[in-house]
Amino acid sequence: MPVVSPEKLVSLQHAAADVRNICILAHVDHGKTSLTDALIATNGIISPKLAGKIRYLDSRPDEQLRGITMESSAISLYFSLSRKTAPDTSPEQKEYLINLIDSPGHIDFSSEVSTASRLCDGAVVLVDAVEGVCSQTVTVLRQTWIEKLKPILVINKMDRLITELKMSPGEAYTHLSKLLEQVNAVMGSFFQGDRMEDDLKWREKMEEKINAAAEKAQERTDGISSSVLENGDGIDTTNTPAEYEERDDEDIYFSPENNNVIFSSAIDGWAFTVKQFAGLYEKKLGIKRSVLEKVLWGDFYLDPKNKRVLGSKHLKGRNLKPMFVQLVLDNIWAVYDATTGGDQGKGDPTKVEKITKSLSIKLPPHVLRSRDPRALLTTLFAAWLPLSTALLVSVIEYLPSPPKAQAARMTELIDNSPGSDFVSPEVRSAMTSFKASKDDPVVAYVSKMVAIPASELPENKRRGGGALSAEEARELGRKKRAELARVQAAANGGNSVDHLTQAISSTAIGEQEKTTESESADSAEEEHLIGFARLYSGTLSVGDEIYVLPPKFSPAKPHAQPEPPKVTITALYLLMGRGLEPLTHVPAGVVFGIGGLAGHVLKSGTLCSQLDGSVNLAGINMGTQPIVRVALEPTNPSDLGKMITGLKLLEQSDPCAEYEVLQSGEHVILTAGELHLERCLKDLRERFAKCDIQAGAPIVPYRESIVRAEEMNPPRDRDLPRGTVIGVTTSKQVTLKLRVRPLPAAVTEFLGNNAGAIKRLYSESRAKEERERTGGDDTPPEQDGMEEAEPLETGHILSLADFKTELKKAFAEAKGEKEIWNGVIDKITAFGPRRVGPNILIDATAQGICGKVLRDSSSPTSDLSTPSDNAALTDKIAYAFQLTTAAGPLCAEPVQGIAVFLEDLTVAVPELDTTSASHDRLGRLTGEVIKTVRDSIRLGFLDWSPRILLAMYTCEIQASTDVLGKVYAVLNGRRGTILSETLSANFSASTTGNSTFTIDALLPVAESFGFSDEIRKKSSGSASPQLRFAGYKMLDEDPFWVPFTEDELEDLGEKGDRENVAKRYVDGVRGRKGLLVQGKKLVMDAEKQKTLKR
């Protein structure tokens, strides 16, 4: 294969119509990197014989060791294609640039998939022909749908149908048809969800327009007859269609005749499309190519007598094969039978000769004489159906170029960005119209930061490959002579003066060498952060100054503090997998590396040449949230500074890892899963911190809540309702009455799902209070704009009216408690913890002394005129509520699902004359009030039946019947819950002898560590789980339960022989946090002390 120079690739970047930006997405082990190897081999980077084995883009040692991809990496490929512009003309050579990104398939690294998809215009989605649609397949298809990428489906590992499942061509065709239906069913579900949402929005718009028009017409009813309104003449709905416009969904489905389905075997190096075989059979059958493309797939049959195409209705009882089986699959099966078939698996040379003659293929003699059947197989397929040709031709013909893709994608992407109404028309036009001149606005998106060792940077490498320059040759010769002199001096014992002087001089040179080598080694060990970016408009050059917009930036307040910094671009790179090539400038539509952003971009960000009217593209869905927390400490305490620096570098370079310092002083890293944690620790020790680091036991999050159980202890105070507490401060000056109740489950779920809406409502109310306090129409504080931008990233945010309506519906679902929750929404004072959590503080006092979070701007503000003492203490009560819900009474974990009613507040102190004395008095009361409120809420919490909520994983396992029992044993041993067990439709029980089941289960995160390894060991590697965080599930067991009824005492005894699992979890968390653990024995046998003698 010809080696393509970087200069050639750089020259192709300027022809935007001939550039394709694609990412390869799939479930783990479905063949992404092997497929990429075959494409890289076309550029002469690796040998075609090593394609599928070397895994070129898996540059990390642990990726090679485990055989899975952990980081998305990019490479630029050259592809030339000869085409005829007209049937009579000679073919013209056209050159293309393919910017390809290979992404991981493991669930722990799905954040890498999210970062890769935003940079691309099209996606190649791989599906294993045997395993079919898996959990991560659905995830990557959803990612392409969200990002509006145009996908191509590659059904990979077709060879497994022949070699493993031993299917006949007819069985394989049926199997592939079912597989295609499954993928299309997933795409159809996405379309149906969007269609229902669009229909709902259309109905809401119609109602709003009709109501608005009716109100306007009502105002003008003076002198106008009511018949006008009845006929609807006064209602203007011209901008909204009278009927919902149905969208065409034909383009979203995969179908071989549409040229968006490829059948391949990456390990054997072949692939084909229906279009290829239509070209092969066009002359032989005398049927037009366009007709053959439509009938080669589906229920179409070829009449052997008159060579006519028949539909299934015209078979008339004849047993004919479908055309896809007869003309395509039979030939593929024949090649495998001729090369690797037979009794001994060595094939049949006669059949091979017959096939090569019919295909007009000449194989090298040494391949024909080879004893390796696979060498013959791969060589034959490489000459007949090369994988790179089928895939790259489909990519060029079906997937859009950057100008076309941006025209289709950018409008919606900009509209969904924070503060989209304030994006300047110049920036919007430059992105949608693909303006790439130097004078146009520059907009680039940095999806992640990549850590590169200094020795790998192009400026630290010698260019030119093989030939040495004159200076380098002289320097090398001097070193060689010095080394030779040292050896001679040592051999002669230093008898002669000449040898002694040579030895001295050589020693000096050697010392210089050592010092220079050590200096270069130290500099080479440094890690440099390179941005992984895509340019949407303008041209970027080295030395340009550009603004770096953080993810929370909003163009509505471009100069909000802290103002986005302006940085100088120090370097631009062409991404070539394991290497980088320097660039001087980059045109729009290119995926590239960028230097100079270290310290300015944490994980992702937007680069823009202007601050006013800029766009923030950093709102990206990461797919998985970090859930596993581990406390780290250096083995040598003096290395603490190194570890902290390494953790900050790791946080910048990993899209999903997070670093935080707890109140206890522990340095904690948050990761997406066990494998992700292992990779982060390896990077810390070997690359970023370069010191030995000890990792503690994983810190798993829990939640605390309360329920109304059938068997509960009697209330603390029999004269008061359950959960009611009267708290008095230590100075007896403040008395308050609180009542704690469990929230309905529907309300808790609604509040948990709409944290973004709560945060925005709080920011708006605080900004309004600030304006009222300062008086006039002053602008709100700058930091509010930064806070508002964050929830806008996550999608649709409810307005205040919609939020109150939906919350009212959730409260209405509580059966038998309507009187309790009636009118509660307008009395909500705060949400907690962190002002956005699923707990509420309700002002139930007669005077309404607290502020209301969900108060409409048009509602009267009479509640502000409250007694001064009570009003001054309300913010202290809200603060105590936040503290209590952030650390519950069971094990200091966040609380969810409680409502705290403030029923009364009394301040019993004599009035003082001076304002300074009053201020001092309230200052002394602050600490007392916070402590009293916190203790009262905790007592009211424990008056109910407390519960602990466990963080849960959804677990999907594919296992055959012979290991099904072992999988169940492992799940049951780790407190897993089986949700479903379905017989996989992708496997044929008649051909393999063993059916394969897909098991869906729930597994506590606390029990998941070591789960994957145990499953693989027990099943001998045939079953591998995929774990995804699924929220929190209540463990229906009281941590403080003890047997007290006669039956329980009789069955379990006074101590309770049954293990209290909830108490075990609570005690474990309390012990880790250094809290008191009830019932823990410090000394087991005090009288039996062991000594050294006994």
TrEMBL record:
<dbReference type="Pfam" id="PF25118">
    <property type="entry name" value="EFL1"/>
</dbReference>
<feature type="domain" description="Tr-type G">
    <location>
        <begin position="17"/>
        <end position="221"/>
    </location>
</feature>
<dbReference type="InterPro" id="IPR027417">
    <property type="entry name" value="P-loop_NTPase"/>
</dbReference>
<dbReference type="InterPro" id="IPR000795">
    <property type="entry name" value="T_Tr_GTP-bd_dom"/>
</dbReference>
<dbReference type="InterPro" id="IPR005225">
    <property type="entry name" value="Small_GTP-bd"/>
</dbReference>
<dbReference type="Pfam" id="PF00009">
    <property type="entry name" value="GTP_EFTU"/>
</dbReference>
<dbReference type="Pfam" id="PF14492">
    <property type="entry name" value="EFG_III"/>
</dbReference>
<dbReference type="GO" id="GO:0005525">
    <property type="term" value="F:GTP binding"/>
</dbReference>
<dbReference type="GO" id="GO:1990904">
    <property type="term" value="C:ribonucleoprotein complex"/>
</dbReference>
<dbReference type="InterPro" id="IPR020568">
    <property type="entry name" value="Ribosomal_Su5_D2-typ_SF"/>
</dbReference>
<dbReference type="GO" id="GO:0042256">
    <property type="term" value="P:cytosolic ribosome assembly"/>
</dbReference>
<keyword id="KW-0342">GTP-binding</keyword>
<dbReference type="Pfam" id="PF00679">
    <property type="entry name" value="EFG_C"/>
</dbReference>
<dbReference type="InterPro" id="IPR009000">
    <property type="entry name" value="Transl_B-barrel_sf"/>
</dbReference>
<feature type="compositionally biased region" description="Basic and acidic residues">
    <location>
        <begin position="762"/>
        <end position="776"/>
    </location>
</feature>
<dbReference type="GO" id="GO:0043022">
    <property type="term" value="F:ribosome binding"/>
</dbReference>
<dbReference type="InterPro" id="IPR014721">
    <property type="entry name" value="Ribsml_uS5_D2-typ_fold_subgr"/>
</dbReference>
<keyword id="KW-0547">Nucleotide-binding</keyword>
<protein>
    <recommendedName>
        <fullName>Elongation factor-like 1</fullName>
    </recommendedName>
</protein>
<feature type="region of interest" description="Disordered">
    <location>
        <begin position="762"/>
        <end position="788"/>
    </location>
</feature>
<dbReference type="InterPro" id="IPR041095">
    <property type="entry name" value="EFG_II"/>
</dbReference>
<feature type="compositionally biased region" description="Acidic residues">
    <location>
        <begin position="779"/>
        <end position="788"/>
    </location>
</feature>
<keyword id="KW-0378">Hydrolase</keyword>
<dbReference type="InterPro" id="IPR000640">
    <property type="entry name" value="EFG_V-like"/>
</dbReference>
<dbReference type="GO" id="GO:0003924">
    <property type="term" value="F:GTPase activity"/>
</dbReference>
<dbReference type="InterPro" id="IPR056752">
    <property type="entry name" value="EFL1"/>
</dbReference>
<dbReference type="InterPro" id="IPR035647">
    <property type="entry name" value="EFG_III/V"/>
</dbReference>
<dbReference type="GO" id="GO:0005829">
    <property type="term" value="C:cytosol"/>
</dbReference>
<feature type="region of interest" description="Disordered">
    <location>
        <begin position="214"/>
        <end position="242"/>
    </location>
</feature>
<keyword id="KW-0690">Ribosome biogenesis</keyword>
